[in-house]
Design a protein that fits this description.
The chain is α+β, with helices and mostly antiparallel strands and 153 residues long. It folds into 2 domains: 70 residues, CBS domain Like (Alpha-Beta Complex), CATH 3.90.1280; 67 residues, Multidrug-efflux Transporter Regulator, Chain: A, Domain 2 (Orthogonal Bundle), CATH 1.10.1660.
Length: 153
């Protein structure tokens, strides 16, 4: 079995390229199970069944799907505090841009010594606001382009 690479420097999980086929197959199997049942069971080495609750199965399904699509994953809890680098990776922006957002009051933070820290929930809330604003602007562009002679359709 090939090894999944995990970068401890940035906390991202990434599947090895050699695992792509196995992940796609696992994704299909999970989808079949998920489509018929709310939970699942694993068999341990002695044949004893271990129940996987519905919430854990949903999380496993999501992780496998994203890894099968070749995405890198970062698993965080809402109680975690993020460094500026972690927030930058979560927002897919540069660290200096995150610092500007903090200085502009866009995301709440506090200092631990000279280092800035943000609650995961605050960074996720900013990301949701940013995404909503992007969707509004895109909708506005579509509306304007449809009103132009020749239109957009």
């Amino acid at each position: 079995m090939s090894k999944t690479t995990t970068s401890t420097a940035d906390g991202l999980l990434e599947a090895a390229p050699t695992e792509a086929g196995a992940l796609k197959s696992l994704e299909r199997q999970i989808e079949q199970i998920y489509g018929r049942h709310e939970s699942a069971r694993l068999l341990d080495g002695e044949g004893k069944a271990i129940e996987i609750p519905a919430s854990a199965l949903r999380a496993f399904r999501l992780v496998v799907r994203r890894m099968a699509e070749g995405e890198k994953l970062a698993l965080l809890t809402h109680g975690d505090e993020l460094t500026t680098q972690q927030a930058a990776e979560l927002l897919n922006v540069s660290r200096p841009h995150v610092i500007k957002l903090l200085d502009d009051g866009e995301i709440a933070f506090h200092k631990v010594g000279s280092h800035r820290r943000m609650a995961t929930s605050d960074v996720l809330a900013y990301r949701a606001r940013r995404n909503a604003k992007r969707h509004e602007k895109l909708d506005e562009l579509i509306r304007i382009s449809e009103e132009l002679p020749g239109g957009y359709r």
